[in-house]
Amino acid sequence: MPLYDQLMLRILVLYLSIGSGHQVAAEAITAALRRANVEAICTDPIAEHSRVWISLMNLGNSLSGLMIPRLYNKLWSNGRASPLTNWMTTHGFAVHPIRSAIDAIKPDRIVCTHALPARVAAQHKRQAQVIGVVTDFGAHAYWPHPLIDRYCVPVDDVGADLIKRGIDLQRIHVTGLPTLTRLDRAGRSNDRVNVLIVIGGRRAGPYRRAAQLIIKALPQLDLPIRITIVTGANQTAHRQLSSLKLPDSIELLGIVDDLPTRLSRADIVIGKPGGVLTAEVLAAGAAFIAITPGPGQETANAEFLQRHLLAMICHRPDELINAVVQLAADTALRQHMQQAAQHFGRPNAADDVAQIVLSTCHR
User: Fold this and answer.
1) How many domains does the chain have?
2) How far is CA 95 from CA 15, 88, 118, 121, in A?
3) CATH at residue 127
4) 3-class SS at 287?
5) Tell me: the pLDDT tens digits for 206-255?
6) Secondary structure of the chain: what % helix, strand, coil (to 5)?
């Protein structure tokens, strides 16, 4: 697309502050669009309207995943959107703030990293094209909608999910999952196995089980390896780990501003299989040990990782210990997983999504 055409475009990027992945992907796409000299506005319209609603959505999401995981999985993987979802996108509390944002900005394109604003935007888009960006390695039942013009998906598997649910192949583009990280795979050392453990997140609740698993397993990981633990905003996990007598080979950190560098240097990454961390690990070309996957999207991510032999999945301390011991000792297995990760990793996903957004849409 010529530069003068791009300068005339106005792009609205919508996300919801549920977890952090939707926002990270939205900000990465916005940055890529701005690098292309496009006016891009990035916002969570519901949070702008009421932080209370977002807090309640986060609470409901966490509680349903913890208390009724089977139902959560069923709703997530069902073949079509539930009547409640259809009602929410036509009459629910989310409709007004999303429509108001669209009417105020009058965008030429609308990019959505969460299915709820995507569905509302599709029904209220006026002349704007709507592009849905799936931020997990499985597509849940809420995503398919006849008025969403195009979908950007992390991998072919997600495209296959959408096709099974009635979306035309021509509307699907495999771009990778956009992240803000810029990774340099050349940073890996050969002198000792580097293990990076990431157990921090915006919502500490889902990370509680993961942190407890790490705390129980650490004393038994007496191996000639270097371990770095990043707890991020998870202050409870940091306090608990600080109370342990950790050997010099284990470095404990809170919030860091160089996670991309640490990912690129890691031979093995341990963490929950959220969409963004999974994408970052694949882009870094690291072997992945996915711990305590939750229902819904994390289960879908874990199933994708297992299906392509990209990760070991651990629910208990003994499983984690065995996985670390095996990967640390078996160089061939570790390198095989690293090469597989590089095959699926898409470090330039944000730029690829931006190109789809800027290209002419034919349906």
Assistant:
1) 2
2) 14, 7, 11, 9
3) 3.40.50.2000
4) strand
5) 677 888 899 899 888 888 899 999 998 888 889 989 998 888 889 999 99
6) 50, 15, 35
